[in-house]
Amino acid sequence: MDDIDIDTRVTGERTIIDVTGTRDLAVVVRSESGERIYLPPERFDEPVSSSPYTSPYQGSGVDGEESPYGGESGSTRGMIDTADGFRITHPEPATEFDVYRGDEE
What we know:
mainly beta; three-stranded antiparallel β-sheet; four-stranded antiparallel β-sheet
């Protein structure tokens, strides 16, 4: 089993969760406005190419709403792939979060 590192920073304005060592995690973040679920990308096992902060999931979601996988340039929430994991930026201070790991084969 590979090592997984989860680094969480909660400020008065947002929560940033950096995961390294895997992309096969789902994260549930709870904050004042409720619960938000961040799912792993569909092709989490493929290496990320180009810049260390890119994501095929960035952009607008359905009906013009911001996608949970990333946002427009300058977005304050979403999930982006990094060279060895991913980063979640949640738009509020988290009161709790849970991490769920995918099945091992």
